[in-house]
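Lecture notes, part 5. Sequence design as translation. It can be helpful to think of inverse folding as translation between two languages: the language of shapes and the language of residues. The source text, in structure tokens, appears below.
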């Protein structure tokens, strides 16, 4: 039988040099669900596929718009108007045609949460902006013992990549989204007892310009920080796959 590694041995040869053959095979088997495909989630997805992950679920209901081009991986002038999940899936299949993607162009919220069987996935990556949906997804993922959750805090209004870090949610400070999430948890049953790791930055920077976008309040963003948030989330997944493999071999 052909293994996931030998199908693409040249493509992932550098990953194999870094991690070893068993880890590359484990990455090919890992199942990762990514919720939110903006400036963070889209880069996370690409990094995972380039690292050899072959099984993904991509969840986002939005369409690509021109204001996404400065930071979202699949957003170009050619993809404006396309469904983000579809546009990203198309790109990922160009990287590795063997990738298996469950494309979900829908919102994750109170109405749709039951449609997601998170027990089918090893990892859940939370890159959602909406506070309500984020809190619900965190509780949902943590309620499934076999799921490992990695969550992104606010990547907007960040300029200094050297301040981006990962830690337990309870150790996050100086992040407005984390603060709001804590408040939300306290109003809805308390902070989850099960620990989870976040990617975040304590940097505090105010908008210096005005937005031409109409509607809801928006914050300034730049690609080099949102992408590092996404890459860090992907790195956490890869490191955990390696750690679990080493644990199983003891």
């Amino acid at each position: 039988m052909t293994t996931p590694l030998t199908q693409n041995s040249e493509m992932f040869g550098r990953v194999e040099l870094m991690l070893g053959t068993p880890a590359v095979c484990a990455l090919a088997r890992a199942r990762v669900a990514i919720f939110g495909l903006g400036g963070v989630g889209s880069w996370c997805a690409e990094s995972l596929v380039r690292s050899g992950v072959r099984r993904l679920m991509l969840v986002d209901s939005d369409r690509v718009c021109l204001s996404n081009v400065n930071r979202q991986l699949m957003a170009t002038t050619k993809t404006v108007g396309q469904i983000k999940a579809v546009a990203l899936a198309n790109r990922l299949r160009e990287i590795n045609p063997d990738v298996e993607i469950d494309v979900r162009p829908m919102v994750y919220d109170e109405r749709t949460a039951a449609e997601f069987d998170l027990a089918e996935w090893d990892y859940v990556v939370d890159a959602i902006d909406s506070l309500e949906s984020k809190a619900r997804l965190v509780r949902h993922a943590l309620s499934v013992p076999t799921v490992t959750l990695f969550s992104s805090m606010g990547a907007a209004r960040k300029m200094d990549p050297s301040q981006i870090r990962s830690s337990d949610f309870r150790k996050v400070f100086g992040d407005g989204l984390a603060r709001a999430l804590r408040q939300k948890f306290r109003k809805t049953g308390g902070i989850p007892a099960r620990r989870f790791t976040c990617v975040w930055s304590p940097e505090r920077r105010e908008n210096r310009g005005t937005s031409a976008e109409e509607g809801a309040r928006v914050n300034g963003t730049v690609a080099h920080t949102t992408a590092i948030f996404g890459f860090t989330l992907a790195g956490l997944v890869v490191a955990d796959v390696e750690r679990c493999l080493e644990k199983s071999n003891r």
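The translated text above is only one of many valid answers, since several sequences can fold into similar shapes. Residues 109 and 136 are 7 Å apart (CA to CA).
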